[in-house]
Amino acid sequence: MEIKHGPLIYEGKAKRVYSTSSQDKVLIEYKDDATAFNALKHSVLSGKGLLNCQISAHLFNFLHQNQVPTHFLSLQGETWMLAQRINVIPLEVVIRNVATGSLCKQTPIPEGEPINPPLLDIYYKDDDLGDPLLTDSRLKLLGLITSEQRLEIESLARKVNELMIGFFNKIDLTLIDFKLEMGFNNLGKILVADEISPDTCRLWDNRSNDSNERILDKDRFRKDLGGVIDGYGEILKRIQGGADKAANAVNLSEG
Ligand code: TMP
Ligand code: ASP
From 3.30.750.24, 3.30.420.10, 3.30.200.20, 3.40.1370.10, which CATH number describes the 8-84 domain? Predict the structure, then answer.
């Protein structure tokens, strides 16, 4: 790692955030801890930190290339990244393209049903309260963001969804749903923050028809399916293969 970290600012379930000598930058360390159901379930899965860090870095780079502002600045070795320091907005924005998870537990919508247009849900980020789903009026009542900021957050999340659907389709993966967190940087600009990884996205393998085998994300851990690291590893392998192909295409067209 090129840059030295300062004191620990925050430790979450899957990451540690450290200050740096620069006021507006932080170093983020991805841990091997896996938790689910608000940390009721916990394991340490060797290699998960590396996989999530590398996958997140690829996705943040891809979003950056497509004019989506994110906190990511650079990778710092296998499990660390440098990022802009932000004030986290305590909201979790979830977009669903296919019904599964809590949507199927809380509504009669059947598992696997396509959702078009994609459903956008906003949750209040608070482990003690169990990250409750917010209604429109509760979101307004909390007064965390203005109505303009809400529009910006929703349109950013929808843009991320459209971009990532295309990105994953090219490597035979279906983006079922995902969670984003956002924050304000020191100029008050809204950035996509936290991580974008198989911990925070559901990804199904288009190369499999088996309803368990096709799961490559944290549902393998939530549902005790085993092979969590293999699933995450397959996602990184395909992302890296896709990046190599794109680089070759550029080299060929330039050569
Ligand atoms: P859900 O179906 O459990 O509501 O999850 C929707 C998406 O959000 C799924 O991709 C997993 C992700 N997620 C998180 O990243 N963190 C969480 O704490 C939860 C509950 C879900
Ligand atoms: N992120 C939450 C936890 O760590 C829930 C989940 O991802 O299922 O407990």
Answer: 3.30.200.20
